[in-house]
């Protein structure tokens, strides 16, 4: 923590967001090697994981990534706005993506708020430092949008639980140490009332992770099977039977605040490739800029809502829809500007951009499909019959 | 409905809607709201938010006033010596058929008109001494075309002073138009939502059909996106990046039209009658999109500009992450 000469300095950076942002900016301007490595286009997903993990280690050791997290989990205090400032600056300085550390913003706030204090204090610092990663085990082959129908079950045994079932579309499971698994602890017909969230160590006996090769050429998605995997009671996140509330807490972040983090990288992607644009695609570029402006405005309001202790509730659906729309319009422009994405030579840059384009076609599926977001708005906001 | 609602802003919006809907006998609802007094306080965030909320209310209530021209004239007052509200800007509009025209919105009787000619400076003429020809425009907008004898205009504000005032006036004018488009789109959406809840087909309200629900949810999303951008721009004002007024206005025209189109689809044929109110809201959105740069023109121009200059159009993160208060 070279920049931290004492606790007084730490207090300033914790309490004064603009001081934090200015100090971080100065560090980034020195172009640390970990930053430079994370800014290169890398079509092989495992390489992205490696450089991003190294970047997280540097950010943690220098202190930057510890702001925004409470002291009991290895943080230095402050709130979500510190993290929002850090990732915005990283994107602006050329980091290509958060990659699997997107889960820091999706899962970690819930672990802090609802996890067992001792367990979270023991594990979360390793997540913040990039040494361990987390995945999210919600979807199952028969439970996608209808999440409450999931079948993975946890049975009480020897003071703990045995988990058995199958999860799918589990992003980054093969790179993760931990998986937050939503399992049924109530009877099969208990729907959302009989679910519990467990932190499962993916190195445990009975866990099998199988990568799913995707249509865009990467393989960060996985299928994970659990065969009587033993977990202790301290691995319950939230209450026994309170898994639905945990899932909703996570999705509130995935839909309401995550857009701030992700859209900064979309904007960077657009600006860095803007010279590939053609006059014929100017209208598409303009539309992409409008869509990004909408995500930026709506998601910053979402950040402030979270920072003040509120949550967006069903209004998070708007932010989620706008993020998906912006990712697709940025990539609509990219494809229109550069047909090499479809038929070009496989150099690293074209390959990575092609992956991004194809991935943008699925962003309206993950984290709650576009149709589910529209249903939420129709029912809970427009109050249609 | 904002992603986060600020109580004071919501209260002013409600008050403005009420005042426009039921003006007191013979009284100017803007007077009753104290709106004209806000013009001198636009540097204050709360005053600025209230000044712009009037336009959203005008869209929702299909009301019309001289407020837009007064707001756009405000930056010129230091040079012309007028009191706030007594000078109203005429809007330059290029008609494909009729060439360069001057348009005023609302009742300008007894006020002075600011006629601004980019490159030549700006001049003031008495509104009672020009011809005002009513324009047949749908959307319950009182629009007049100004008939001005060329000899009656002379620049009284030199171009060097007019140029920055013009830029500021356009910024405020585009924001105001965006807020009014938002209000009109919200008005159209409210009609469609009410219709979907009561109109029955196949023995149940059409709002129970997912195809209809999703149309309305998209329309609401377009409104919320516009609201977030319009509110953020009004809060940050001069801390927004270059050409941000164009971003806001382009988004307003695009999203406003989209919301109206989806609302019309839900309303079905009844929404296409003169008797039904939908077309007033829809036509108002189209008319406002046509002023100070259409969405199509601005979107294309912004794309071209960013491609050629690599200009960073994103609103500064530090400004956004600082407390919205």
From TrEMBL, chain A:
Annotated protein name in UniProt: Acyl-CoA dehydrogenase family protein
Q: Where is the Acyl-CoA oxidase/dehydrogenase middle domain?
A: 137-229
Which cofactors? FAD
Superkingdom of source: Bacteria
Pfam families linked to this entry: Acyl-CoA_dh_M, Acyl-CoA_dh_N
What InterPro entries does the annotation carry? Acyl-CoA_Oxase/DH_mid-dom (IPR006091), Acyl-CoA_Oxase/DH_mid-dom_sf (IPR046373), AcylCo_DH-like_C (IPR036250), AcylCoA_DH/ox_N (IPR013786), AcylCoA_DH/ox_N_sf (IPR037069), AcylCoA_DH/oxidase_NM_dom_sf (IPR009100), Mycobact_Acyl-CoA_DH (IPR052161)
Query: Which Gene Ontology cellular component terms are annotated?
Result: plasma membrane
Q: Any idea where the Acyl-CoA dehydrogenase/oxidase N-terminal domain is?
A: 46-131
Q: What is the lineage of its organism?
A: Bacteria, Bacillati, Actinomycetota, Actinomycetes, Frankiales
Recite the UniProt keywords alphabetically: FAD, Flavoprotein, Oxidoreductase
From TrEMBL, chain B:
Q: Which SUPFAM superfamilies match?
A: Acyl-CoA dehydrogenase C-terminal domain-like
State the UniProt keywords alphabetically: FAD, Flavoprotein, Oxidoreductase
One family from Pfam that matches here is Acyl-CoA_dh_1
For molecular function, the Gene Ontology terms on record are:
acyl-CoA dehydrogenase activity
**Top-level division of the source organism's lineage:** Bacteria
Acyl-CoA dehydrogenase/oxidase C-terminal domain mapped to chain residues: 173-296
What protein name applies here? Acyl-CoA dehydrogenase
The organism's lineage is: Bacteria, Bacillati, Actinomycetota, Actinomycetes, Frankiales
